[in-house]
Amino acid sequence: MASAGIVNIRRDVDDKFYRYRMPLLLTKIEGKGNGIKTVVPNMSDVARALSRPPTYPTKFFGCELGAQTSFDEKNDRYIVNGAHDASRLRELLDTFIDKFVLCRSCKNPETDLIILKSGRNEDVVRDCKACGERTDVDMKHKLVTFILKNPPKNPKKSKKGAKGEANGNGGGVHASAPSVPGEENGSASGADSDDELTKRIKAEAADLSTETKLANQDWSADTSPEAVKARIKALESKVGGLSLTPAGGLGDDDGSDDDVNSPYAQFGRWVEENKVEEGVGAVQIYQKAQEFGVEKKHKAVFTLVQALFTVEVVKEIDTYKALLAKMITSEKHQKALLGGIERLVGFDHPELISTVPKILMALYQVDVLEEDVVTQWGTHSSKKYVDRDTSKKVRKASEPFLKWLEEADDDESEDE
């Protein structure tokens, strides 16, 4: 089967870092005369990216075109009778996505189809995992009858890892790219192939001249010991006089926590000094982390949170979601992320304490924070990152979000 390109699930969104992606629908005309038919060879991959059974969009095509459809799930063949070009079916797929995938409220594709029963009546609704809304589908559409006869198997609520770990899970949780042959899908191979951020890094790196690279490395006009100490002192004053790493350390053997020349301290200073003046983006920040050799270290996540985020942290999480997904790849990374948030709202911006639920929700929605990790964090205060009183205060503020997680789980249990 020919490999398909990758496109945004919402094709009206022209954003390379839009996290909801799917393979471009492919078609193949077979037969002739009255036996001519259109096969969709990658329907399973497309449907998996949409968290829908492949029979649903195939049947939708048949309803819209007035054509017979057939499915051979065992052999992965999905067929629409008649000759239909790819562009027409792609347009119909956009319509299917709008009617049966996108949340009507927030237009996010991270939804499950569920069937609600009330007496003899059954309603098909889209249950949005992003905004929590449940919105009806067009119950008059012919596909609804098919859905009611072939109900979806709803996945359990899960956020299995940041980005790569969530890919290829058969639906339920959307990842930044679908499971497509030849594409990164977070499989057991662990191959760190070209995901969105990596592709952009390579593209921009190819355009960098030697002069530009040297300019990027020369990030400080004055590198004397006195100037370095002055900058780190000014930066540390913004986080309550504490260093960029917690007193106990995070377990990475790359310089002591008090060393102003450790790679983490240098990385943090660079981000702090360049994020506003130079307006650096995710690619430049990740390249700088690579230069310091800390791009895979969980301590670097802790440093990044303090150096990068401001009072606009909720908006900034969305802006830098690709960077966060690239750097947060394990439970340790997530714990370091939460530790950085504790420092951010506990010392740097205490006025943000009341917005902790929004911050956690933003991190949860961009798939860098798992439900189990944040739940455990919320029930156990610690003095690893901040003092005990501040730790308790931040966790107390997080209770609305933790309650929302618990209630969402209860709702799903009832639905099942």
Automatic annotation (TrEMBL):
One GO MF term: GDP-dissociation inhibitor activity
Ranges for domain W2: 257-415
SMART domains with a match to the protein in the record: eIF2B_5 (SM00653), eIF5C (SM00515)
Gene Ontology biological process: formation of cytoplasmic translation initiation complex
GO cellular component: cytosol
Stretch forming the signal peptide: none
Region (Disordered): 146-196
InterPro entries assigned to the protein according to its UniProt record, in alphabetical order: ARM-type_fold, IF2/IF5, Transl_init_fac_IF2/IF5_dom, Transl_init_fac_IF2/IF5_N, Transl_init_fac_IF2/IF5_Zn-bd, W2_domain
UniProt keyword annotations, A-Z: GTP-binding, Initiation factor, Nucleotide-binding, Protein biosynthesis
Family in the record: Belongs to the eIF-2-beta/eIF-5 family.
Protein name, entry field: W2 domain-containing protein
Organism listed in the record: Rhizopogon vesiculosus
